[in-house]
Amino acid sequence: MTIGLDDVIAAETVLSDVDGLQGRLVMRGRSLDDLAGHADYEAVMALLFDGFFERAPASWQAALGAARREVFEHLSFADPALVAQEPIDAMRALTARIADGDGPATALRLVAAPAVFTAGLVRLRKGLRPIPPDASLGHAADILRMAGLPAEPLQARALDTYLVTVADHGLNASTFASRVVASTRAGLVSSVLAAISALKGPLHGGAPGPVLDMLDAIERADHARAWLEAALDRGDRLMGFGHRVYRVRDPRADALKSALGPLLQDGRADRERAALAQAIEAAALDTLRRRKPGRTLETNVEFYTALLLDALGFQRDTFTCVFAMGRVAGWIAHAREQASTGRLIRPQSRYVGPPVGEAQER
Ligand code: ACO
After folding, report:
1. Structure pTM?
2. What top-level class would CATH report for the domain 14-200+333-341?
3. Whose CA is nearest to atom 1 of ligand 1?
4. Residue 302 annotated among the catalytic residues of the structure
5. For position 295, what pLDDT does the model report?
6. Fold of 208-312
7. Among positive and negative, which fits the CA dihedral 346, 197, 151, 129?
8. 108-120, pLDDT tens digit by residue?
9. In this predicted complex, what is the ipTM?
10. Does the keyword Transferase apply (predicted)?
């Protein structure tokens, strides 16, 4: 029995393969190197969805723009109490307003939802009016525009690279949650809501905000080692490091580091902060090697997610929502794949509680 299901194969998938020893990620036969920085998010979404819907639209790309416009109307449900919630909770609540279903229209609304709702909620929180989607734009460029952030090709390319990089990643916790719900035939909205809930935790998609908190707290490169040692002494985990599957560097970290490069060269990203981050990364890896000698703890995707999304102007409390904007295509494709097996996911637990007699005596 494996607590945490570490080595358990719970599904067969044609969607993605995570090679934790070689540090390789493949999505539907295409390597991450081949996709990140080369394909746009819509193309990768279409790749992941291919064959999973009976009546697929003629162009997934065009249909996604229309879906952004369609879900925009749900923002009118965003009352002040909802807007005051953490962006991930508010975004999830609005996503729950989408009618459940299993068809391509529901899938497209769900891909549009984290993008449209997060951008709109951030504006509403600032007392500004949400910016309606422009269906003629690419998904990444429109997200930046709706969020009121710089949306030139340089930034749109960087966000596209991010969304593609995180679009799918094997049976991670949120994708597994999506498949479990899909296996009960509950519908795609239910699957995606479960996945968003799993994603928000700090051990999964909630890590990049705390990565920036760590950079802020350390402040100077020469403070790094003492700060990191003290964090480990307290029993804290260093955010942005370690992974359940990778025993080498997470290949997504390098894809995102490359995406950050043009923003730094162009002066759109803070070079001093990037230099500090690099020094902290090196100090953290060194400290983890010494403190956890039996374990290979390397940089994961969240470290460079934090730097990239910060450079694009996203607020740190929306980072997990931006992760959802990318991963949602994977959640949906996995939900469809799971449903197609017709098999309910229902593992067993081993009872370690008191025997009947003992419980009655208490
Ligand atoms: N900092 C300090 N110690 C760590 C870290 C870390 N980031 N990661 C793992 N460890 C330690 C554990 O405490 C444990 O130590 P112990 O045996 O002395 O108790 C040991 O390393 C074992 O680690 P694993 O079994 O590899 O860890 P696990 O698979 O349970 O956890 C996880 C993986 C949750 C990602 C972990 O590395 C972690 O908490 N990282 C920080 C949070 C983070 O960056 N999450 C994002 C992951 S990427 C993603 O979800 C998109």
Report:
1. 0.95
2. mainly alpha
3. 237
4. yes
5. 87
6. Cytochrome p450-Terp; domain 2 (1.10.230)
7. positive
8. 999 999 999 999 9
9. 0.95
10. yes
Q: Do domains 14-200+333-341 and 208-312 have the same CATH topology?
A: no
Q: Measured in angstroms, how far is the CA atom of residue 347 from the centroid of ligand 1?
A: 24
CA 71 – CA 236 distance, rounded (Å): 40
pLDDT digits (tens, 9 = 90+) for 306-338: 999 999 999 999 999 999 999 999 999 999 999
| Dist CA 115 CA 138 (whole Å) | 12
The confidence score (pLDDT) of residue 77 equals 86
CA of 256 to the centre of ligand 1 (A): 20
Domain spans in the chain, listed from the N-terminal domain onward: 14-200+333-341, 208-312
Told to judge if 223 belongs to the known catalytic residues of this protein, a careful annotator would answer: no
Beta-sheet strand order (sheet of 30-31): 16-19, 24-27, 30-31
Which residue, 263, 274, 280, is CA-closest to 221? 280
Q: What is the pLDDT of residues 208-231, one digit of tens each?
A: 899 999 999 999 999 999 999 999
